[in-house]
Amino acid sequence: MKSFSDEPWNGEPKIIVGIDLGTTHSAVSFSYLYKGDRQVVRRAQCFGAEAVTLEKRHQAEDEGWVLAKYFKLHLHPQSMRTQDRLTLYPLPFGVSLSKIYTDFLGYLLRHTRTYFEEHVIHGALIWEKCAPNMLIVLAHPNGWSTREQNFMKQALLDVGPEYKNYQITFVTEGEASVHFCMFHSNMSSALETHTDLIVCDAGGSTVDTTAYRVEKTSPMLELREKKASACIQAGGVFVDLEWEKYLTRLLNVAGLDEEDLRDYLDNGLRNFEEIAKQEFDSADRIHYVDFNDRQFSKEMIGIKKGRMALKGVIIQTFFDQVVSSTIRSLKQQMEGLKPQHLLLVGGFGESKYLRLRLKEEFEKDGCRVAIVDDSTSKAAADGSIIWASKLSVVGRVTRTAYGTIVRTRYDPSNPEHQGRKATRGNGGYQGVAGKWSEIVAEGVNLSAQESARRKFIKSYKPGVSSYSDLETYTDEIWVYYGEPGTNPGWVHDKDGEINPGFEKLCTVTANLGGMRGALLPRTGVDGRYEVLEFWLAIQAGGTELCARIEWVENGKPKHGPVTIMPEPIDPLPNGENVTN
């Protein structure tokens, strides 16, 4: 096995598990790291797509099972779910999205453990020994945020009590793919300092595109995001859906009974996905779809002896929208840059037609489309392991604005203050609540481990205020998802309702009990009062938002724990469909 690092592992024994839970297929990779040994990635390969085997399909029909098809699409943010006016397959009635994720993650982890124990010497003993320090890395689309991360984390914790002590972190599929490409190709040796490159992870349901600048090539490759990464709802599953619409229309006019129609539809969908979809590269060729029944002939719709001849120009229409959207997203990401390399990965990235179209579109301008020889459908799982062992992206671009809600002094002549409820504060001044205070704007490039921070104060009135909250002090981090330039400056409107585009992201905590005797004295309209000075800081490490409270105590800087407690995502009601 090829090592992904020139240096042997020098830390404590550790198991890293990388999971890419995809729309049409999932992948799990792992690495067992111990002192002095090579750092290698291995793939858990002891399980497969049992749900679509003929035996399981017959059993499902006999026992009334319902397939949870493309369930990952239900977790996409609302903006992604609605932009293409997509009708999703309904979840099985009475089964929540969180239940499906928990069961499926449990399935992946159980088989991964089995594979590890059977293929690593003393595997069972090692797994038990390393379990308290195990790291699970979950890859997800670029367009997902802390809300979706929290949903997945909770689903994994619900698998069983043994997972509650595991370390869980997240990496975007695009970033994991960079590491996969560096590992499985000679790309790293071809990169030079200040080179721009684009990574396109074309998966089952999303196409993630990220622009990077090479900061260093030695002793370790370091990359910096040039723009906020893009994520569009596109990918191989949408080619399948277009084919399904086309085939359904044809079979409906063939006069088939309901059972035959369903069987031929299932066979036709599966065969197209496995063969014609993979082989299609030109509108000039004819491809065949096999319905697995030589007695099935309907010449009125082009089926003879169980086979349908599909012209390339027809198949091309199934690809057109997805490929056009992918090219459009890539061009937007390339604006203002001159990338020399475009790294194409992901399950849909293995499409011959997509590869040809991207080469035609971009190589004429000097941007080489790089394709890794190994199966890129495993890119996110493999790459997440390498990412976790050596974080080498040194800068990130904020994808949204982060801030908090503050109270500001009331100005009766300010139209924005008029109509809002004014209350008297501890200093004796009238104030209005609900004001947005930005900590870091959208599109800001933060170096890894760099903080964006802003100072805030809270007032206390001696003899009136309770100081008990200092020991468990909390504050909230909010985000603004709206278009740049549309922020109204107020989280709450004059009726106290949350303005469109704002959303609470997390709560940060700190023990400020040691500050009780160090509050700063102030004099206001009502006499003496005290203020607490602190900072809210946003940090750029990892892909999770790192937020914390910082303060100065006895002349020394201090900070609270990195506390991320996102509001839970609202999953779809049990068995509900999404239509727009």
TrEMBL record:
<dbReference type="InterPro" id="IPR018181">
    <property type="entry name" value="Heat_shock_70_CS"/>
</dbReference>
<dbReference type="InterPro" id="IPR043129">
    <property type="entry name" value="ATPase_NBD"/>
</dbReference>
<protein>
    <recommendedName>
        <fullName>Heat shock 70 kDa protein 12A</fullName>
    </recommendedName>
</protein>
